[in-house]
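Re: Re: token formats

Sure, here are both.
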Amino acid sequence: MIRFVLLTGRPGIGKTTVLRKTVDLLRNRGWVVGGMVSSEIRRSGRRIGFEISDLLSGESGILAHISLKEGPWVGRYRVNLGDLEHIGVRAIQNALEEAEIICCDEIAPMELSSPLFGEAISRVAKSSKPFVGTVHSTVVASLIQELEIESSVEVLEVTKQNRDGLHQEIVRLVEDFVSSR
């Protein structure tokens, strides 16, 4: 059975939007969904950073920004390890304890610059809970291998053609997994 649904696709194609629609539909069906999501921070139409939010508590902070003075560089952004670990990692840990379904947007070089984030994702892999996440295309294959989830993963590429209805397919996969347990 599929326990991990990983969304991949080119930048800007709508992976986060599909994940958010999935979270909304799951919640509308009565599921408790936890984890973390990110969103762009824009100024004058230009992306200058990313915000991170806890799906259960609503707490948010800065994941990465062009004006940060500290933190590892990923592209033109510096990663705010403090908020990533305080909000993002804690959101995943809380989801392991309190949620029925865990979601994470996104697993990519920014987030993986934190060893604590990587450990939290490993704990998700060892749990029995269904997981839906967006994954940067450069890390999807190594992530699947490292987490040893080959037999229980479905990788879905988000495209312009499928992005409007893909959340319904994801919810079906998650509910099929839950009902099979």
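Second one below.
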Amino acid sequence: MQKPTHTQVIGITSGRSGVGKTTVSVNLAVALHDMGYDVMILDANSSASNAQAALGTHCPLNLSHFISGEKNLKDIILSRHYGIKLIAGAKTIESMTTLNGDQATRAFQQFSDLEESLDFLIIDLPPGTDPSVLSFMACTGRRLIVVRSDKEGLADAYAMIKILCSDFGLDRIYIIVNAAKSDEDGKNLFNHLNTVSTKFLNRELHYLGCIKQDELMMEASENHKAVTEFAPTSQAAHDIRHLALATSELDRKQYTEGGLGHFVERIIHLHDLKMT
């Protein structure tokens, strides 16, 4: 296993709620950890602590305690029994994009201090096209969008992709199809979305893979467990491991000057990212 040179920051979101975005985020994090990587989740769902609930825990401290100066970054990190780390964003995730000078310097230093001990930072973002969500997504190195096979969901996903491409000029957008009927169904859904994106946005999307329909995935979630632990031989566990492998093998050239410090710098200078 080849460890990345710098922490890979991955944003995961969806065009709408109910497509299994957080389930994918948590299971992907656990599968990456099982491969030997050091992983942390930033639960950026401001209104519902989804990642915390999925892991059967609650963070007593959150990002607001760090931004206010009450606590250091390491003080608000919770370690889970899987070995992955967790930070709660609470309702202050938007404030990361409006840090003052002293806060920005402190954030840069303390996030950078985690660089050597962290291979992946997975940010579980709220669904939808709220400007603060997409702004935060634009700061990540990789953007993973979870979709399901329904017209409304695809339309919402496309609306999000359109803003990311046209307003921020982004590429490296990856699609994960959740609850696909088959591998063929997952690939067909991606091809449809990619065809529309290529035609109207002149932007090619990338297919990371699919998770096929499996009741054991839902049962694992209901028991606040990763499916690879709850049902390690299930189809869902197999698919999650495949996604984790695909994620670990993504081109890493952009991370030569990347990592957590680069991620925080992009947040601090967010107004420079948005294209005019």
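The beta strands are 8-14, 39-43, 78-79, 85-88, 120-124, 142-147, 173-180, 206-212. The radius of gyration is 18 Å.
- S.
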